[in-house]
């Protein structure tokens, strides 16, 4: 692919990702309050006025408005912009790592799901079953991708489900975490091992910081497991190969 076309396509991928991130913000806000996600224009949650079209540009609108509503001046949470940025960067990274491939299509579905479940876990301290089901369906579809034997997907699910079920029994994990990682194992196969390790290590490190600063022992593992799953899809095979090369 010509370098100019490649760059243009990369920018396009980022814009698509950030736009999807904007929609994820709508989902995260409206679903818990049972507001339609297809009807009604976006509006300020304080004054209720409809947001102008020029203020709906992902990332840029928040920056230009300096994080405030155009009409009432109420502060707009930076989370909206951060979610758009994360989704855009995740799409761009997937394109740079995977190129135009079937795995890129899987990433395009997986990453928004991971972001939604992370936001839900942060807000409500639970992982929605629907997200785990979508990832499990991706896992079943991956049986038809010739990157690994079908039985390795089942092995990946079993390898991660059993220890996570034990952690859940001991109170270190929630049932939603177990279902999430079982679905991820079905999708990633052996790559779920580094995915789980990354998620657990990140969660443990942040948990220690929270414990030291606030004395609280409550942490949502969903966002950290999501980071691990994303890394597993993008680099799981490379991580495993690198580890095996060290122990041979």
If you had to describe this structure to a student in words, what would you say it looks like?
The chain has helices at residues 3-30, 60-64, 79-98, 102-124, 129-141, 150-169, 175-188, 192-214, 222-247. The protein has 248 residues and is mostly helical. The model has no long low-confidence stretch (mean pLDDT 91).
Can I get a quick summary?
The protein is mostly helical and 248 residues long.
Low-confidence stretches: none
Gyration radius over CA: 19 Å
**Inertia-based shape:** globular
What distance lies between the first and last C-alpha atoms, to the nearest angstrom? 37 Å
What keyword list fits this structure?
mainly alpha, 248 residues
Write the layout of secondary structure elements.
Layout lengths: L2 H28 L29 H5 L14 H20 L3 H23 L4 H13 L8 H20 L5 H14 L3 H23 L7 H26 L1
Helix pairs in contact: 1-3, 1-4, 3-4, 4-5, 4-9, 5-7, 6-7, 7-9, 8-9
